[in-house]
Amino acid sequence: MWSFYIEQLIHSLPFFLKGLWMTIAVSGLSLLAGTAIGFIWGILRASRSRFVKPLIGAWVDVVRGTPFLVQVFIIFFLLPEFGIQLEAFPAAVIALTNLAACFICEIVAAGIQAVPSGQMEAATSTGLNALQQLRYVILPQSMRIILPPLVGQFVLLIKDSSVVSAIGVMDVTRVGWLTVQRVPQGLLVFGLVAVLYFVICYPLIRISNSMEKRMSAGVTLNKM
Amino acid sequence: MGRLNGRPIVYMSSAMLETFNFRVIFEYLPLFWSCFLATLWLSAAGLLGSLLVGTLACGLRISRFKLLAWIAGVYIESIRSTPLLVQLFFFYFGLPSLGFRMSESATGILALTLNSGAYMAEIVRAGIQSISHGQVEAAVSSGLNYLQRMRHIILPQAIGVTLPPLLGQAIVLVKDSALLSLISLSELTRAGQIMTSERFMPAEGFLTSALFYLIIYYILKGLTHWSQKRLIYMQT
Fold it and tell me: What ipTM, to 2 d.p.?
């Protein structure tokens, strides 16, 4: 009995790998775009602007306060009402990019604010302009605070990408859901799906942990 | 799933948005209210369960028995490296194939509890480690008994350290409980789905769900800020 099901699973392995590729595509695209947008928002959030800062803050709160599944549904079902007809894939990428940008924005803003203000003043009095200050003084120092939670956040986002299977994106969770209709062994099927996620996420968690250990030495030094 | 294909539907629905239908929202308000309560109780059950599981996992993780510590480690790492949705389907489709029949809500609470427990273990450990050994020794030597030590020395400090991340985990749990709609449990997200499928009003449905979630979020966030202030007050 079991060997029969296992054989069937092995037969549908290419299907699973295709799903894995879709998961990597969705989360890879969203992480790239989300990191870029998140850094811009984070820098603006840490700035002294009176208008942009609360605006980003409010948006981040709304996104952090609602489930990702609801956000995906809203983007998928609501944008068509404004005449923007989206396939499931771009809708998923937009939703995940927005989520990534909001979380990364918070991490970046916290990292920038952790740099002592004396650094900024010194940079100003050396005659660097705002961009140069950011590029040569602030960002290099805040990077060691930003990087470990950033990698940890990547793991959370890759896991969140499983939610987009609800609107029909053929990612590895969706493949599992379709397979379990045919091979009624939930433990086997979703065990396999879990292993595929584990293979991606576990190394990233280890990287994040080791980064945290290596970089924390420098951070304590900075504070003194 | 219900994709909106074809132009006529798009035109029809864009006309719908111009008349955002509050009347129908009012009509569905009893459904949303009962689903709101369901979300609250599912996440509360998950929080309570995960607190127990997390404490147990944390206790095993730091125990001297290598095997127990290893088992707890495998549990924590494997939960943290896989999505909640996959864990949910694992139990939902997997347990019946082993012969266990559980209701949807029991399956949902089980998945939430086990998922959140792995994160809770870390929070509990931070709480335990925050109290230095010297404090306990000092309390013993000033003649406090076990209950008094707990009441006056250990718990006030441990709760102060644990409460903010605990509330953060509660926020995560409330949001995670949205996934239970995918195994057709009636909670807030499901209410939006029901409204979409019955009246074809995704805007009204999902935005109302989002609003209810935001209410919970802002309350919990306010509590987090309050507890953080308390924490600083206790430390100084």
Answer: 0.90
